[in-house]
Amino acid sequence: MNVPTFAVVGPPNKGKSSIVSTLAYDDSVAIGPDPGTTTRSRRYPMNVDEEILYVLVDTPGFQRPRAVLEWMQARETTADRHPEVVRRFVAQHRRTDRYPDEVELLTPLLDGAGILYVVDGSVPYGPQYEHEMQILRWTGCARMALINPIDSTAHIDVWRTALGQYFSVVRVFNPMDSDVRKRIELLKAFGQLQDDWRQPLSRAVRLLQEEQDRRRNRSAALIASMLEDMITLRLNQRIREEGDLEKATRELQDQYRQRLMRVENKTRDRVEEVYGHHGLQREEDWLPLLNQTTLFSEETWKVFGLTRQQLLGAGAVSGGAVGGAIDLAAGGATFLAGTLIGAAIGAGAVFFAGNRLAEIKILNIPMGGRELVMGPVENPNFPHVALGRARLHHAIVARRTHAQRGALHLQDALLQTLPTPTSRLHKALEAEFARLRKSKEPEPSSPPLRAAVAELLEADERRAG
Ligand SMILES: Nc1nc2c(ncn2[C@@H]2O[C@H](COP(=O)(O)OP(=O)(O)O)[C@@H](O)[C@H]2O)c(=O)[nH]1
Ligand SMILES: [Mg+2]
After folding, report:
1. Residue 141's pLDDT band (boundaries 50, 70, 90)?
2. Which of 19, 31, 42, 177 to mutate to test the pocket of ligand 1 (most atoms within 8 A of CB)?
């Protein structure tokens, strides 16, 4: 089996290891701000279902390309002998410490790897790179150049012209910001390099696309079951002593809020794992799902012109339902308009739409005493907010590459890039949410809800690309 293998080579600190990490979907590749992070060549296979689709070889950068080229030129005869000279160079210096990095990076090329030469499009082109490119040409290997615009695209055009002299294919590729579609385009270009790689690489492209669909569908199932868990959440709290009602209510609301947030966080962890990102830190620059100080504060009750005493008092007298009157930010329709979502949540605006989050009931316990019961979530806006947040998180995770090593930044600005659900989809979601709100028992996972969420995630992905 001829598994397409690519050695990523070039000057130090131009993002070679980052490209390996992104294309191999592997966050174990060492990436660092200092040159010399990579000292040995190492193979990183890309697997789907335990099948190796292709292999990336990370290599150290060129250190003394000029001296190496001079060594080779001193032994030059004719072009047909160039690969042989490269082979001799490696053989003669393998056991010396004169050119350790060049020996390391040339070795996989002698074993038949294709070349991905990586340069930085934000720095000017210069003649010093020609030594490296000349050496690579002498290997006779299939080769392609990638321009990584690390800080800018300022010098891309000049690079393109120069690289075109040495490489049959030249592409711009940013390992930090490339969604699956861009990675797949690159793989297709790799297929042009060598005839016998075309077929395995088009198979790789197909399997990667299928894998992406599987990941999206798995995420949709997780998000759907998150919504089910949230909407149907019911919690109770024992009222231990008479006059304890207020304290018990507060505790119950607190617990309720924490449970909702825990469900959201757990779902986020699992979605990240679906995409092969483990133990990510998350940073949010927008409002938490439920903000205690705004949502459960005295001020919140006052928005309704009522005190907690009044509300609870009325409930206790009638012995029936107590209006929780806890409300969630933002109106339903607003949340569905793509461009307005960002404005509403992003600005941190909390306003109350006149619907409660969940009802609190006081029940008599058969053995004596009373308890408070809260849930399911009644606020019709809440599931839309929770879903909008999950879509944003998913969109960011799905396009994160494994070369990105920092915290996952959940930016509200990105919300505005998510498309508005079609009215058909909105109706389907509303019907599902309404059904869940009425359910007395935790619901088994619902295929229509999963399908609706999956459709939304796919639309998000198309929009982001
Ligand atoms: N902003 C940005 N930084 C990059 C990009 N590619 C690489 N880097 C950074 O550049 C440094 C060197 O990257 P690395 O992949 O280790 O380069 P190598 O020495 O060529 O393997 C690291 O700090 C990376 O985070 C990029 O496309 N954008
Ligand atoms: Mg490196």
Report:
1. very high
2. 31
- Confidence at residue 374, expressed as pLDDT on a 0 to 100 scale: 86
> Among 16, 17, 18, 129, which residue has the most ligand 1 atoms within 8 Å of its CB, making it the best to mutate?
18
> What tens digit of pLDDT does each residue of 188-202 get?
999 989 999 999 999
CA–CA dist 344, 127 (Å, integer): 53
The whole-angstrom separation of Cα 310 and Cα 305 is 10
What stretch of H or E contains 24?
none
Residue in this structure with the two tokens 């600190």, named with its chain if needed: 13
Ligand 1 first shell, C-beta below 6 A: 12-18, 31-33, 37-38, 61, 148, 150, 174-176
Token digits for 296?
């459960």
- The candidate with the shortest Cα–Cα distance to 416, out of 391, 399, 382, 397, is 391
Question: Is pLDDT larger for residue 375 or for residue 100?
Answer: 100
Distance 272 CA to ligand 2 centre (A): 25
Query: Is the peptide bond preceding residue 376 cis, with omega within 30 degrees of 0?
Result: yes
The pLDDT tens digits for 48-81 are: 989 999 999 999 999 999 999 999 999 988 999 9
Per residue in 202-215, pLDDT tens? Answer: 999 999 999 999 99
Shortest-distance atom of ligand 1 to CA 58: 21
Buried b (16+ CB within 10 A) or exposed e, 210-220: eebeebbbbbb
Helix (H, G, I), strand (E, B) or coil at 424: helix
| pTM score of the predicted model | 0.83
Mutate to test the pocket of ligand 1, among 150, 152, 177, 402 (most ligand atoms within 8 A of CB): 150
328 pLDDT band (50/70/90 cuts)?
very low
Q: Whose CA is nearest to atom 16 of ligand 1?
A: 31
Tell how far CA 16 is from the center of its chain: 21
In this predicted structure, the answer to whether residue 354 has a pLDDT above a threshold of 80 is no
Let me know: does 326 contact 357? Beta carbons within 8 Å.
Answer: yes
